[in-house]
Amino acid sequence: MILFHLAWLHGASATWAADFVIYQKQAKKILPKVGIENQIYLPLIEFLQMLDLPYSESISAGYVNISVGKSTIKLTKDKATVQVNEASVGLLAPVVVAANRWLVSPDFISKVLNRVLPEKIVIGGSGNRFLIGPGSFNRFEVKGVAGQQRSIIVIQMMAPAEVQARREESKVTLAFGNTPIDSSKEDYQYKDELVNSIIFEDSSTATQLVVQLADKTLQSKVTHLPSQKVYLLEVTRQTSATSGPEGVIPPAVAATTAQNRRKWQHITIDAGHGGTDRGALIKEGLFEKDVTLAIAKRLRWGLQSAMGIDIVLTRFTDQTLSLEERAQAANSAQSDLFLSIHVGNWSQPQESGSYAYVSKLTSLEDSTSEKKDESDKVASIRFVPWEQAQLRSLDWSTRLAEILQAEMNRTLNGGNSSPTFRYAPLKLLSSLAMPAVLLEIGNASEPQFRNTISDPQFQNSVAATILAALEKFRPLYEKP
Ligand SMILES: [Zn+2]
Q1: By mean pLDDT, which of 68-82, 131-145, 402-416, 432-446 is the weakest?
Q2: Does the pLDDT of residue 150 top 80, yes or no?
Q3: Residue 344 CA to ligand 1 centre (angstroms)
Q4: How far is ligand 1, taken at its centre, from the CA of residue 313, in Å?
Q5: Cα 59 to averaged position of ligand 1 atoms, centre (Å)
């Protein structure tokens, strides 16, 4: 007779995380974890029924026999050795019967069942989640960037996922639907001034990440960056007494702006290339560097007269400038916005058109790639240091790019609404601590465009397009 206690754990215990989660044919089922002394057990018969495997058992005679095709598995009560056809396989703990229930240690799946099943059961990195049938688990990592008035929680998915965000009181829920999700942690042990906890909750009806905010007056907003498989949860504290209509204008503060200042004072326009770096050849004696400078100057004039703000150019002349020098100039001037002007140069004519680019942040995880141990992955999502600068403004950069793209589609792309802004791992943008977008106007490899881009009238229309976009973006960003 063994001494035992049964624990039906439903997140109540800190030592043992929730239950076993079994994904099968788009459905999700839960089997309780049974803890006896220091061992976790899986209810065997329920699991065999899910797998639809024939078995016979007798508690009084102390055996369970399972048939898997032509193979036979024999388990004996209180024994850690299992017979699989002619072989003996040792489990971490003896097979036990408690409260008339057959229980096996979970390594029964990997060591015994997966040895004979025609289609192996996929075991999640957490060891608590099993996938029966085809498919694989999607995983995610969570990283928080804390600020005094603003925190950003980065949820990096390993594969594309549809996530539904919901806000109730002081709780933000990101629901993953029915796709198999594996989380290596239940509690992310994250806390900052605005966020109390980040917990992964798994039940038969929900798979979700629950972010508990410090209080219910905080504003929250979720942005999906599909090309990066990233969800950004931005949590902000409303400092001004005049709060806008809820959910319409988030009171995000760019990292460089002082606490309550959200007025544009200073915008940096960067004319791409320059000096020895000539950029694309437009035509005989005319290079991208010349065209970008011409557009930048026209834009400066237009913005200054229309908006009455300080517009600074990274260069006024045909000057060689490194990317670092351009970024540093804007960062040290605490610019409120950064726009870099370029001319596209695509060999494929179908790439023609004008596009806005936003920084694609690369986590270190991406470069070291797939086959790392699950436990390593948890800690390894870190952004390289210079990318931290843009991370805080990325949400605004994305909105600005969307508006610029829509405006360019209307004018420069001939009313074609299908082009969307793009993400690119551009070091220049990533090191900027303010909303930052790079524009590529047209395609220099198209003979017809080479005449267009050098026409002052066209350059004026580019400047007018950018001005129209900034006029739309300004009220979203600025706060009285
Ligand atoms: Zn360029």
Answers
A1: 131-145
A2: no
A3: 7
A4: 16
A5: 76
**End-to-end CA separation in angstroms for the chain:** 75
- For residue 446, the CA-to-ligand 1 centroid distance in Å is 15
Residue 350 above 80 pLDDT?
no
Go through the domains of the chain in sequence order and give each one's CATH number: 20-132 (3.30.457.10), 138-236 (2.60.40.3470), 266-477 (3.40.630.40)
Q: What is the Cα–Cα distance from 174 to 163, expressed in whole angstroms?
A: 6
pLDDT of 37 reads 84
Residue-level pLDDT at 102: 96
Instruction: Compute, in angstroms, the gap from residue 292 CA to the centroid of ligand 1.
Output: 8
Give 429 Cα–ligand 1 centroid separation in angstroms: 13
Distance CA 104, CA 261 (A): 62
Residue 339 CA, ligand 1 centroid: distance in Å: 13
> Considering only CA atoms, which of 318, 315, 312, 356 is closest in space to residue 331?
312
Question: Of 41, 49, 36, which Cα lies nearest the Cα of 20?
Answer: 41
SS3 for 152-220, per residue? EEEEEECCCCCCEEEEECCEEEEECCCCCEECCCCECCCCCCCEEEEEEEECCCCEEEEEEECCCCCEE
Distance 347 CA to ligand 1 centre (A): 14
Instruction: Please enumerate in sequence order all residues whose Cβ is within 8 A of that of 369, keeping only pairs 6 or more positions apart, or say none.
Output: none
Ligand 1 centroid–CA 282 distance in Å is 11
Angle at 425 between CA 264 and CA 156, to 5 degrees: 90
Distance 278 CA to ligand 1 centre (A): 9
Tell me how far the alpha carbon of residue 289 lies from the centroid of ligand 1, in angstroms: 8
Query: Cα(356) to centroid of ligand 1, in Å?
Result: 13
- Rg of the Cα atoms in the chain: 29
Length of the chain: 480
Report how far ligand 1's centroid is from the alpha carbon of 280 (Å).
7
Ligand 1 centroid to Cα of residue 391, in Å, is 23
Residue 26: its pLDDT value, please? 76
Q: Who has greater pLDDT, 5 or 200?
A: 200
- Cα separation, 366 vs 54, in Å, equals 44
Decide: residue 318, CB within 10 A, 0-12 exposed, 13-18 middle, 19+ buried: middle
How far, in Å, CA of 154 to CA of 195, rounded?
13
